[in-house]
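Hello,

Our lab assistant flagged a job as stuck in the queue for most of the afternoon. It eventually completed. Since we weren't sure the result was trustworthy after the delay, we are filing this so someone can double-check. Below is the sequence as submitted and the structure that was eventually returned. Let us know if re-running is recommended.
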Amino acid sequence: MTSERLGQLLNSLRIAESDVYKPLTTITRFASLMATYTKGFKIILQPNPNNGSLNDPVMTFLCMDSSLAMAPVFNSYKTVILTSGTMSPIEIYPKILNFKPFLNVSIEIELSRNSIQPIIITKGIDYSWLSSAYDSRNDREISKSYGRLLVDLSTIVPDGIVCFFPSYMYMEKIIREWN
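-- returned structure --
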């Protein structure tokens, strides 16, 4: 429990400038988590989102087992209600989250109109070729064309737009360019 021990040490030494020790605190928390959980977690190394460099990667400790994350909720509360418009099929959630439901209800809803129209776009407003292929991701004209297309579509689509990207890193890059 290196994180707690470091906190106790900083308190006993009466160190007021705890911001100076924030990087060390982050490392000790990370080490404590890695030592505490041996199953259901993965360490993911990704290129730095600011510059795409592998020399300064971003390291993330991810919980890959949702039952571990939900266990404290189920242990702390007598009644837990899970509800969503997209939890389908609902029968899978007791298995994924490792619990026995008292009641499991799914309500079918019919929409009066088809409100979802998925489309794959390959050409922009100016008929330029659009692609999110890896080798064309640095083309600023493509990102500008995507942006113009979404802005134009948003003026005529009544309920909003959901835009999918092939990766979070590409999405963040495009959003930075648009901003």
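-- support follow-up --
The delay was a queue issue, not a problem with the job. The result is valid. The two ends are 42 Å apart (CA to CA). The mean pLDDT is 83.
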